Amino acid sequence: MTELARYAIPFPVSVNTMYARSKSGIRKSDCYKAWISEAGWELRIQRPRPTIGPVTVGLELTAPDDRRRDADNCAKSVMDLLVTHRVISDDNSQIVRWVKPEWVRGRKPGCVIVIAQADAP
């Protein structure tokens, strides 16, 4: 696999806290909206280029504290961010072959996104 890009963003919001109930239905939570804004600006500063074709996405996660978390709950917010900012065209199975979240210690809290060209089927 050929690495195409690497981006650093703030630690992702868990899928469990992305949405909240309101009188009018389900809406994006305040913490998710704040993360979208902060992570979006961090991504833009790094001037991401759109990727073409099938890719793999690695998420190197460094948590801000010692709470127990599920790594896969962090993937959805990151994948949606990549699609919103047109780094990847979609997060469906034809574009993203796999997403691998992993815990990394000894770094500043956050997430490093590693996008690589997927091997041909």
Kindly list the characteristics that best describe this protein.
alpha+beta, 33% strand, 60s Ribosomal Protein L30, Chain: A, 121 residues, 4-stranded mixed sheet, two-stranded antiparallel sheet, single chain
State which percent range the strand residues make up: 25-35%
CATH architecture: 2-Layer Sandwich
* Uncertain segments: none
How many DSSP-defined strands? 6
Overall structural class, as computed from helix and strand content, comes to alpha+beta
CATH class: Alpha Beta
Number of H- or I-type helical stretches: 2
The largest sheet, given as strand count, sense and whether it forms a barrel, is: 4 strands, mixed
**Radius of gyration using CA atoms only:** 14 Å
Strand neighbour order, sheet with most strands: 1-6-4-5
Report the helical percentage. Answer: 10-25%
- The figure for the number of domains is 1
Report the CATH superfamily: Holliday junction resolvase RusA
User: What general outline do the C-alpha atoms trace?
Assistant: globular
Give the integer mean of the pLDDT values.
Answer: 94
- CATH topology name, in short, is 60s Ribosomal Protein L30, Chain: A
What oligomeric arrangement do these chains adopt?
single chain
